[in-house]
Every structure is written in structure tokens, then in C-alpha cells.
Amino acid sequence: MKSTGRTWAPRMACAVTVSLALAACGGGSGGDGGSSDDGFTMMSLNENTTQDSVITSLSEDQCATQDEALPLDITEQAQESVDQQIQLLAGQGALPDLFPANTPDLIRELAENDQVANVQDVLADGDAADAIVPAAESAADQIFGDQLVLPVELNIEGIWFNKEILEANGIAVPQTWDELVAAFETLQAAGVQPITNAGSGGDGWGISRWIGAYLFRTIGPDAMRAIADGEASLTDPEYVEAAQAIAELGEAGYFGPAPNSIDYATAINTFLTGEAAFMYMGSWALADFNDPEANQIGEDAIGFLPFPEVEGGEGNSDQTPTNLGTSIVLSSAVAEEEQAQAWVECIASNYGSVALRDHGQITGLQLAEDVEVPPLTGLVQDQIEATDESVLWFEALFPASATTASQQNAGLVGSGQMSGEDFMSAVSAELG
Amino acid sequence: MTTPATPLVAPHADLPTGERPAPRPRRRRRPMRALRKLPLYSVVAVLLISVLYPLVWLVLGSFKTQDEFLNSPTWALPEDFTNLENFDAAWGSVSQYLLNSTLAVFPALLVMLVIGTAAGFALEIMVWKGRGTVLLVFLIGIMVPWQMILLPLFTVYFQAGLTQSLWPLIITYTATGLPLTVFLMATYFRAIPREVFEAATLDGASMLRSLVSIAFPMMKNAIFTIALVQFFFMWNDLLIALTFTTRDELRTVQAGLLNFTGEFGVVQYGPTFAAICINVLVILAIYLFLNQRVMRGMAAGAVKG
Amino acid sequence: MREVLGDRRTVLVLLAPALAIYTLVMLVPMLWSLGYTLFDGSVISGFQFAGLDNFSRLFSDPKVADALWFTVKYAVVITVGQVLFGYVLSLLYVFVLKRASALIRTLVFFPVVMPTVAVALLFQKLFEVAPQTGPVNALFNAFGLESVNWLGDPANAFVVLAIMDIWRSMGFYAVLLYAGLIDIPEDVLEAARLDGASGWRLVRNIVIPLSFPVLVSSLIFSINGTLKVFDSIYALTGGGPGTATTPLTLAMYRTSFASGDYGYGATIALALTVLSLLVTLLIFKTSRRDLTQG
């Protein structure tokens, strides 16, 4: 257990409590959930079955040798409580070897306190030194400021549209923001819901993504970096303008009735049953798009539109919003242990193709073999390859409290109940 | 507080069925006309619909596919009543979760009731200086938000090497249930005149003996009520279970229900409903089983009035 | 005799186990967390002594003020609702349904058994506005009224929350209070009836005073539960829309664990504990005075 000069309070209370309690304080130094003696430990999200099953299948096949030397041990955690659990374990110096990057801000904080290993350093000496694709590397740099994750997920975001609805209403695929808004207007007049995106509770990111994307087009790819560095404020007029632009869509009712009571599943379902024409979404939704039971409009009816340029803006539509999902973080213990490193190398070399083959999951890792993919997945792969410059999303660099404020309030912007200015001040207040 | 001359609550209130004074002969009633009962019937009907609809909805839901959940109205009947896929998907994990919940809740419940009743007895029946203060100290426990004790407890459990077992849940449930148990037991004991125990001591019984042979039997109904209340608290707890269970095989039912939610918050409605159904059925079975005893006791009480 | 009732060793034997467990698992961690109120930082980066910073922040934090106001509003409305409906139900059981009440008691108790997640899902569906029209809005439409955005509007979300929490707990309070009502001696009621008391007068003059202790217990129990509400709000609205339905517990949980700001989270928790303490003492004092009047 690392003792980094934490205060007297926990120690003393621990001494008091435990000396009275059943067990002794000193006895458990290092604890039970520690990493090294328990095999290759991984905390995975309950909700994300892909990572579990890919790594388990690797342990039985490609990484069987590593598994024998250091057996894989997966514990699951509900997404609800995963950040709390990571903090609690980090407080005991007992992070598992692998754990999910659920909230970027938390991972950045862990890195500042030397609890996280740099993935490039771990991979540098072995065969897997070039395993990470450039797009993922650039995204990690932007999100974490360093290579802090093994990119087992790589998503691009943009606007998906229903080709048939557009055709039926005589709308050409919009190339600029103005054309897009004009398309919304036409659709609304024709009685078709223009956009579907979630805005209920914590699902408000469905709408705050629009604000972020708009900002990257008007102010440029560094728009949110400037906020994080304190060089600009969300309440500056050019930032408020972006939120207001989306608030106006909300006031016009383009997000459909009551978007702030729509959750993620409903939003996707609305799009896939042909009830709405546009949806801003990440490529993780491919899982639904490629599922014929969920996708009732058919994959041929779905098109992808990079978020369009705004006239007079600094950004351009080649700058693709990219994220790494809940990729895997390595605890600093991994860097100190050879067997664990061997495991990570094996994962880095083989995860990409197994995930794509078995789960249709696009990763930021090079493929060990060719895999045949459905057309929409291919489209996303091409888009990723064509991306020179990636941008983030609205909340990427926020601390948790500002992220919560943004996701909680964005729904109100989408339903026209909150102005752009009010939204930006509410979020700005949390940035301190 | 001295016992008031006229007891506020009937002294025989908690006597077990057998020792209860025989119910007095009921007054003869004139036959009520059905019409006069109509308002009553409709009130009861509305009441029952409002509490039974969810059960029906839940059961119906457990037969529905995800597509039906998203695209048909909430009140629609399932298309296929023989669709048992949801139960199939749910059962595998739910059986383990049920076992864990049982293993965590019942020991905690038992310990909590025994020591809580003893403490309530010591605080209300026994006479000693400072009991008011101690009762107040217990009362504070009702007010503390549980979120506040999570971090210290996690540290202690972790250092003691308990986090890979159900012990943290058992210990925490026992402790968090105590304040209310002690407080309620003290309230209920207030109803028994101290003279009962004074008489017992005259016969040479020690206080411990009085507790076991007089207080416990007299308090059966009260203890049962508290047990019921606490059982549902523990069984339905999510916060503590989420914080202290790190492994899937240790998960309780409530924490396990979150399993059927996808990464981006997509709820797998069918399996979730099936899992809830199984859970509710098990609880109902436990409830009815435990309730039989007390219903018999209460039936005697319901005759009067 | 008083000696036996006051035997110190017996007191110790009876009290020690409960007091020890309670102290170790609740009191000590509580005091420990109390210590954190003087610190700034997180479990990850370590804690630094911050003096009373957290407290001065507490008193100037508009978010806490909003959450406090919501908590109080929620606690008052739900407590009154729970206890009132529970009491009316228990009166119904005891005086109207009598022997027939066993089955109904069990059925009305049923919502308590349902997991919060399930209840919240149910109410979300019942009050749905889009993309499908939920039963409640369908009813509104049938009477020619417009659909209402129930969970998307702060005031409406509160209404749904109140209906849900009262609905799911009234059966529980009914059973709790029922246990108190059946204990009222028959001869007392009989005597009152002979004096001509019936209906409302019987209830007001005889039943309420006699069931007063249980009523007070229920009230204390309920107010402390509602002041600390967490699960049901978390599951139904997630504190939204915006932060309109965020109680202190949720604000504290987010501060402590989402933001990792444990010291400030503990400070909010302390404020909530003090609030509960004051309310409970108030009820306690008032009721004790009433009790000893007899």
C-alpha cells in the first residue's frame, strides 16, 4: 500500500475503529483486493459486456500463455458506482491492473498522482509498440494530455440521417449549418420530427453534443481547450451564441415533443423506426444500426453527415469529433511487473481483430488479421482513416461537477425551456 | 418518565393470542343494505386497482420483447405469452443474487433484532442514569445520511480484508438497522407497565429472565413488525450493496438488477422485468410465510371494534 | 425492587452488544467523516487541512440552498402525505373493513415490496408524454385536455415524485399505524360509543389521542426518511429536469463521489444531519410534553 502522506484523520480513525473491531488494522496492509498476488486483475463495467468477453476469449486463445503465468481475474462494477469504486480503491493503493476510463477527469487526477501507467511506455519495448492507431493516439492526447488508455474503443461522432425521409421531402444532404437548419424547417412543416436526441436526466449529452460540435465549427478545434486553460469563458458571447443556436432549435420544437423526458434508448429507437430524420450520435450506435431487430429502417437508409460548417467559422467539417469510449486504463502496478506487461502486450496485439470480428466493435488498435464488416461499419472505418484532426466533445475536459451540470441542463435547452445564456452560466458556475 | 396512571396503550395489547382476554360478544348489527356500502366498495376497488395494476404490468412486461416495450403502448398485452426468453435470460444470474441477498439479510436481521430488543429493554424498562442520553445517541443514527459513513467503512473493511466476502453487508446492515430498532422497541416497551416486571422480580426472576420469558413473548407482534420493516430496507438497499460488493458472485438482487442495463443506459426491459418478477415472488413468499403467524394474532385483534 | 430494575451489570449485558456495533460501524465512521469537513482534497490526491473553508463555502453555495429548499419541501409534502394516507388506511382497516382487512392490508402493502428501480420505471411509463402517450396523458386527452410534459417540467416532476412516493409507502405506514390502532382497548371505545360519540368525533376525541405515540413514531420515522431521500429520486428523475429535483443527499453523493470532493460532501452531510436532528428533537419535545399531560 502506498502511503503518500495522507492525513492523520483516516489513520487515526482507522486505528481507533479497528483496534476495537474484529480485525486489526495492520494485518491488512495491502489488503485483499491488491493487484500483484491476485493474478491479472481487471475491473470491467457491468454494462459493457464486449470488453469482458473479448478479454476472456483472449485468455483462452491468443493470450493463453500469459494467462497461465498470471491468471486473469475479472470483477464487474455497475457504471453507477464505478467512479466511486475506483476512488475508494485508489485511496487504498489497490487499483486493479486494468480498469475502465469512465470519467476522463478522474483518470487525469489519478495520473497526476502516479496511479496510472503510460500505455506507450508499457508497450514501447515489446512487439506491440505500434499497436495503437494514430487517430486513437491523437484523441488520447487531447482527452488526457497523455497516452493513458489502451484504446479498446474508438468512436467518431456526427449526424446520422434517414435517407428515405430526406428524399421523400425533397431535401438534399445539407452541407452547411444553414442548409441543415433549413432542412429542419422543411421537415417540421411537413409534420416530420427533424431531430431525435435524448435529454432526460443524465442523458442530456445527446443535446449538449450539438452545442459542442457547433463550437468546434465556429471557434475552431481548440474551443474547449481554451475553456479548460482558463483563456476563455463559456459566458463569452461567441460561446453563448453556440448554445443559443441550439436553444433556438429547441424553441422551434425540432427536437420533438418533450426531449427532456426522452432517454437514450428511446432516442435511438425513434430514429431507427423512421420517426425522426436526424440524430447526432457516436459510432457506438453501430451495434444498434447493424441489429436488424432494432433497426427497422434498414442499414441502407442510414447516412452519415460530418457536423456541417458554420459560415464564417474557424473550424471545418474534416475535424471529426472522436472519443475513446470507456477504454481500458492500466494501473501503475502494471509498469512494474513483467508478467502483467506481457499480458497488456498480448491484448494490444490481438484485441482489435477479435473485437471487430466477434462484436463489430471498432477499436483504436491495429488489426492482426482482416475482418469482413457490414457496410455502415466500413463507412465509419473509412471516416476514421480519413480523419487528420480530431476534436473532442463539449464536456470532455470538464471536471465531473460541470459535466453533470451540462448533461442535466442540456435537456432543457433542447425543449426550449432554457436559453443558451442561462445554460452556459449554469455550466460555467461549476467550472469555478 | 413514570408510568401514567391510565396506560396510554392497552397493557394487554401485545399479549400473544392465547393469553388475550376473550373477545367480548359482538353487538348485534342490523343487516346493512348493499347500497350503503357502495361508496366503501368503490373506495376499496380504486385502492386495489392502484396497487395491483403494477403487479399485472410487471408480469405482462416480463413476457414482452424489447421491440414491444419501445414501440407498443405501455398497457398493451404481450404478443406472445409463451415467450419465456426473458425468464431464461434472468434466472441464471438472479438465482445467485437471491442467495446472496438471503445470506446477507437474514443473519443481519436476526442479530439486529436480538440485540436491538435487548437494548430497547435496557433503555425503557430498566432504570438507570443516562439512559435518555443513550437513547438520543441511538436516535442520531436515524438521522445520519448513510452516504456519510461509506468512505470510512470501505477503508476499514478493505484493511481488514473483508471486501471479498458478504461480511461488509452483514455488518453494515446490522448496524444501520439498529437505531430504528432500538428506538421503536423502546417506544413499544413504553406500553408495558413496569409493574409487570416488578412483579416478576418479586417472584425471584432476574431481569435477564424477565426479558426472555416475559418481554420477548409480549413483544412478538412488535418484533415482527420491526422485522418486516427492516427486512424490506435491507432487501431493497442499493447504496450499501453497490459500494461494498465488488464481485459479480457477491451481488445482491438490487445491485444485480442493474446488470440488465446497457453501457449507454439502454435498459433491457424484458429480462429486467423478469428478474423483478422473480424477486417480488420470492419476497411475497417470504412475507406470506412469515406473516401467517402474525395474521393469526392480528385476526383476534381485528374481531373487536 | 428498584435495585433489580437498575442493576448495572444487567444493563451492561443488554446494552453493550447493540451499543458496541452501533458505535463502531456508525458513530465512529460518522465522527471520522466529520473530521473530513475540515479538509480539502480527495482520496486520490490526499487531503489538506482547510480550516473552515468548507463551511463558508456551504453558506454561500446557491446549489446547496436550492437542494436544501427542495429537501424541505419534499420532506414536508411526502411526510404529511405518507402519514395521513397511512392513517386513513389504518382507520379503514380497523373500523370499516375489520376482519376483511387482512387481504387488503397485504395487497396495499405490496408496492413497498417492489424494487425502487421497478417503481420508477412504472411511473416513467405511466406519465410518459413522448414518443408514446402514457396512460395518464391518454386520460387527459380523453377529457379534452392537452398532454402534459410530466417529468420534463420542474413543478410537474415534483407532482409525479410526490404521487409515486406516497403511493409506494402508504401501505407501509398503514400497517405500522394499524399495529397501534388494534391495541386500543375495546372497552374505551365502547364507553365512548355509549356516550354517543361516533364517526369523526370518535376518531378525533378517542382514537387519535390514544394512538398518538405510534403516530409520533411514524412521523419521526417518516420525516427522517424523507429528509434523506435518495433512491426514488435517483431512479425517477435523476435530480432533473436540470437540478430542479436534487435533494441534499444527491448533491452530497455527487460532490463526494462524482467530483471526489469528499470534505465538502461531508460538510453537506453534516448540514443534513443537523437539520434532521433539529426536526426530530422538535417533534420529540412536542410529543413528550403531550404524552406526559395525561
Automatic annotation (TrEMBL), chain A:
SUPFAM superfamilies the UniProt entry points to: Periplasmic binding protein-like II
Entry keyword annotation includes Transport: yes
Entry-linked InterPro entries: Bact_solute-bd_prot1, SBP
Signal peptide per UniProt: 1-23
UniProt keyword terms in alphabetical order: Signal, Transport
Top-level taxon of origin: Bacteria
Family note: Belongs to the bacterial solute-binding protein 1 family.
Identification of the protein by name: ABC transporter substrate-binding protein
Organism of provenance: Modestobacter caceresii
TrEMBL record, chain B:
Residues forming coiled coils: none
Membrane-spanning intervals of the chain: 38-60, 103-123, 135-160, 166-189, 210-233, 269-290
Keyword Transmembrane recorded: yes
Places the protein is found: Cell membrane
Domain ABC transmembrane type-1 residues, every copy: 98-290
Biological-process GO terms, alphabetical: transmembrane transport
Main location, first listed in the record: membrane
Membrane-protein topology: Multi-pass membrane protein
GO cellular component: plasma membrane
Alphabetical UniProt keywords: Cell membrane, Membrane, Transmembrane, Transmembrane helix, Transport
Region (Disordered): 1-29
Superkingdom of origin: Bacteria
Family: Belongs to the binding-protein-dependent transport system permease family.
Protein name as catalogued: ABC transporter permease
Originating organism: Modestobacter caceresii
Taxonomic placement: Bacteria, Bacillati, Actinomycetota, Actinomycetes, Geodermatophilales
TrEMBL record, chain C:
UniProt KW keywords: Cell membrane, Membrane, Transmembrane, Transmembrane helix, Transport
GO BP terms in the entry: transmembrane transport
Membrane topology category: Multi-pass membrane protein
Localization per Swiss-Prot or TrEMBL: Cell membrane
Membrane-crossing residue ranges in chain numbering: 12-32, 74-96, 103-123, 157-181, 202-223, 262-284
Domain of life: Bacteria
SUPFAM superfamilies: MetI-like
GO cellular component entries: plasma membrane
Classification via InterPro entries: MetI-like (IPR000515), MetI-like_sf (IPR035906), UgpAE/MalFG_permease (IPR050809)
Subcellular location, principal: membrane
Domain ABC transmembrane type-1, residue spans: 68-283
Cross-referenced Pfam families: BPD_transp_1 (PF00528)
PROSITE patterns linked to this entry: ABC_TM1 (PS50928)
rRNA-binding recorded as keyword: no
Sequence similarity: Belongs to the binding-protein-dependent transport system permease family.
Designated name of the protein: ABC transporter permease
Native species: Modestobacter caceresii
